[in-house]
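The pair is quoted verbatim as follows:
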Amino acid sequence: MSIVTSKVSTRRLEHGLPVDVTSFVGRRHELAEARRLLSASRIVTLTGVGGVGKTRLASRIAVDVRRAFPDGVWLVELAGLENPQLLVPEVIGALEIRDLSSRSPLDVLVDYLCHRRALLILDNCEHLLQPCAAVVQEVLRAAPGVRVLTTSRQPLGIAGERLLDVPPLSLPAEGGSPRLAGASEQYEAVRLFVDRAKASVPDFALTGSNQEAVERICRRLDGLPLAIELAAARIRSLTAQQLLERLDDRFRLLNKGPRGVMPRHRTLRALIDWSHSLCSPKERALWARVSVFSGSLNLEAAEAVCAGGVIETEEIIDLIAELVDKSILLRDEYPAEMRYRLLDTICQYGRERLAEFGQRTALRRRHRDHYRRVVAEGYVQAFGPSQTDLMSRFRCEHANLRSALEFCFAEPADARAGLDMAADLIFHWSTGYHLAEGRRWLDTGLAVHTEEDGVRARALWVCSWLAILQADIPAAEAMLAESRAIGEQSELGSPQPGQDSTLAYTALYAGVVALYRSRADRAIALLERAADLHRTAGDPRGLALALIRLSLAHSHLGDSATAVAVGEECVAVCDTHGDHWAIAYARTALGIAAFRQGDRERATRLVKESMRLHRSLDDPLGVGLGLEVLAWTAAAEGRHKEAVRLLGMAEVIWRTVGAPRLSGYGHLAGYRDECESEAREALGASAFDEAHRRGAGLGYDEVLTEAFGGRRPLAEGRGGTRAQEQVLTRREREIAGLVAEGKSNREIAAELVIALRTAEGHVERILTKLGFNRRAQIAAWVAGSGRGSDDEKS
């Protein structure tokens, strides 16, 4: 990260630029991009939410480029100007033009600029958009040597205008490994907080005791420079932890800005009040209604939840566009759709307005009902070609799903709906990231909704599956027994075409439990019954799941021929319906059968195919299972170091998702034990432990990087400088590998299923941390010695 510092001065710089009285932190990427845009376009607008630092950035850009404009770089501050008729006179005054004629002010301005090479900066144009646009157009038409840089919460909307969205300052990610004291100052937001805190308390420093609190403060304030500066000023009277604890009432707490700035920059509330005043009544209403969402939302959700009353459904798309233009809503581009979000500070303000309108409960109910429909439809579609997009969407919607469930379980009368919704999310919970959370929601619902109906019966067998994945077999057995009893005494025992059968699923998961308890014959009987019931019910999903487990059961008994036949039947069912998730596990089952037959080459190929599918679906449990099987195969071929390393990598997966080893596949533990024993005997204790450390010491992202595509993690085997290797996070090392392969930011976003903006931020941080300014230098660093060449850096 580049830190630019300007010394305090009492004089104005030449060319009409104000001096910086505090240090300028970060913004290396934005500065470079602004220079590039100004070289290619005559009008550039810096946009962004209030308090994000547009004015400060514009001033720094002006300082950087002033030598290119021999006739002046002039900054015109418009924040305090209310009368649009005074716009041109304000610009004339800022440029110190002396004219005593009777000509119109615009003619005077144009005549002054027409033969000059100058940069005109119009700061805070959002409340004067139309007059600013008209003046800029006239200046650009008449003065070919003039370029214009504007700051505004929305674009001017004139021909040739290029936009640079100014994002919040970079932030340390939530969670992850603890950082060394001071290490988080590599992030711009933390660096700014520390810098401004030192201005108030000179001996303030980031330490092991306050670093986490400072990081959390910066995240809670969304990386907004103004909010961070207001918060840091409180360090004179509060510790970082005390400040963090009081941020729930941030609008009252952050109300002591410098006296020499515009009134709306003195408090956080005044700043957002200003943004609110610039919105139309319908835009304000949508702002308040969108605040009911958690995380982000898509257009479909906005139309379903926010329309009504003063807002027609067909108006939503245009109102969203207006709020995006005004930098109230932020846009995140995902491979499948555009999503929108409010910064937490902006969202809290909207929720206050929603409460004032008396609409919060009604909107939360509409929000809950929308996501109930989305989840119910997703459950039906979870077996088929839309599976990958669906799982990706549910990961994006996780915060909204959690919010909807919270609303359901807040009232006993809604508990049945919440339990039904939690059961519909079985595949979202069981892919691994939210396994424990899903179990908690289901346990909560089952404790409240005790009526012995179909909803409870289904929730019981769904929860039993999550318990199996957690190796909580006694709990799973108890839930399956109750679910089966409900099914046997109701019509649920008679499968209807296209509907779930309680008895079919209880037989399926009872078979899994029997296999776990090494009762393979019993497991086969139960699983065959489950498969028959699912065939009768016309449920291909249940049939595929039963066939996968049936293949594993036959393989466990040594009947490889039947295991292969059943596994291939499952593949055929999945192919017919375009499913990827079940077919991935079917291929793993076929790989295990091939391993049992001694066909290690086929086993390896099948398991790697399954792991690629699991990666595309972002299913870490499937990846972990695949790593286990690859380890057993490697050991059988005498590649013991590789086998132990793979076992260590698998442990990273299980540890990351909070699941036991071989989650849901405990009957395979014997193969792992045999692999470990054979490798330990072949290598000796010391070599075994070292190989295991090399695998288990990787981060989750590094495991995925090494397991797919042949890319090795940068921290090993590339000879880079240790300082450079350690400064990048695990995710950044993976993305550096993708950059080295020539992938664009959009392609990286698609492969890792992250927002385009997130990918761009990662690449920018990699450049900053390594001291590079071009992607080619990253590629050279990855492919060669781990460092960009001296020529590249010059």
